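I'm curious: can you give me some protein's one-letter sequence along with its backbone structure tokens because I've never seen that pairing?
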Amino acid sequence: MTVRTVFDRAGHIRDEPGILDSLRASDDAQVVVVREGRARVEDDALLTVAPSEVGEAEWGLLGRREDGTIVLVAAAASLTDSIDAAPAETWMGLRDIGGLLDAENTEMLVAAVTLASWLRDARFCTMCGSESELRQGGWSRRCAQCALDLFPRTDPAVIVAVESEDGERLLLGANANWHGRMYSCFAGFVEAGESLESTVHREIEEEAGVLLHSVRYISSQPWPYPRSLMIGFRATASEERDARADGEEIIDVRWFTREEIASALAGDGPVGLPGPASIARALIVDWYESK
């Protein structure tokens, strides 16, 4: 699964003096407004507005569209008079939209939601607590007191599609938060000092009681809830009979045949699967189509 970046983040102009003020005063720039992890969507595309239409917000330079248009992000407060008149149903997150957006709009949405979260949450220095100053078009801050440079954090997490020795069955788990309504691949954050491969083995053994071999990297996906990078793998279980849920985070694990996965992908059961916007579904589809 090779994904080409189509949205230019315009890193080469972030350090230009006064770049944000200049772009906010421009009639040519567009703005993606983000509120509580959601942006406005109409006709299967992100809705952008002129900078003058946005009230109080934290600002950042998002990038440049394929047609050359500069796009800003405005991280709005929970209640902002200038945007609250918009219909509630037009505010959507990545899970709501699914796979409806094209590649450019999807990249814009993920970047906008992720950067907006950091802009609103990281105003103070993590070292001394002093207020920080925005730099690099919103992509870094510098503490006014101790001069510490701060950057948006990305937390790596692995997500794994576990297949049987013969490749004909897929092991999925039901997270406790889903109350058994959906089954998905197993995932977990990388711990301090841990490699991706070690995380894969640890997480699967902890959540499903299964030992693995033949771990293969497939692809990755930025995921803004929270600011994460999901790193996708496929792996083969050494002992299928040992599969069992941890009973806390995962309440059930099941081996699914290729026919059952085909039915679930079509929405006909026997269980629900993750939505089309997630790498979890992409990993499942990748396994299903591999034979």
